[in-house]
């Protein structure tokens, strides 16, 4: 029995019916990633080991009013209110290992470029994708496959906070416009908002050399979506991972809450725009996990336990409202690529890609 059939059985669905049903309502995909957000915070909110550690926050006690409650279900609502209202009520959330529901990476590198390659291509490639170097991806991403189709040509766009995304997506070969790192909005007809974002990005560079602050990524994406109405949008937010690497748990939590507000803005725009309303699926995930102890949480990789553990969420017209999936099951971020194509009613052209996450499908 293959993995798709097993997962369908776990979730009480009919394998035959799922395969027979090819018609979908999804016409557009918003694929959203956030770098290095642990499943522990996603499902349980602020970590009791870290939330008042003076070595990890600027002011002792400063996080408690905004992020702390004894009940982890309330803590997670405090941290990610949109996720634990709209997404939890109308979507699907995978990866709470307390229920035996596991979401994992297949690659053995367990850091960003290999993680994004796996999400975007449907398969790990540890032989060739084994560093974060700015080298063009030899693999073809799901974005590029769609860009090559007449109905999607010119309607695929990508945005990212990390300046390596143009190489992961292989902007040069694929022809997909990628606004990432410190790229500005370009063109002859920039909106006043884009002109202002360009100016502000030039004046506020943030604390990292290769990663801009997420507000710039988000608002560049929002303006482009409003102006050009793409059918496939990829947005890669980055702040949580970089704050974590700096051992700043306070800023890590603030960036997660900000990310959640961006998801809310994206979904509300989708649901109030005729081109997107009831025709768009949003899939959200992360590129890797990270350590769980004070000495390891700042890092991730093959040498740090739990770095393989991630989470996945989805919401859209073809995805049953399962909420937080509590059945024992195993999913992988590598399943996302084929899932995207099946939601669009298409066959994924890469045979090596993992199976789809069957429960996201109608």
Automatic annotation (TrEMBL):
Residues 220-300 form the Metalloenzyme domain. Keywords: Signal. The keyword Signal applies. GO terms for molecular function: catalytic activity; metal ion binding. InterPro entries: Alkaline_phosphatase_core_sf, Metalloenzyme. It comes from the Bacteria. Residues 1-20 form the signal peptide. This is Phosphoglycerate mutase.
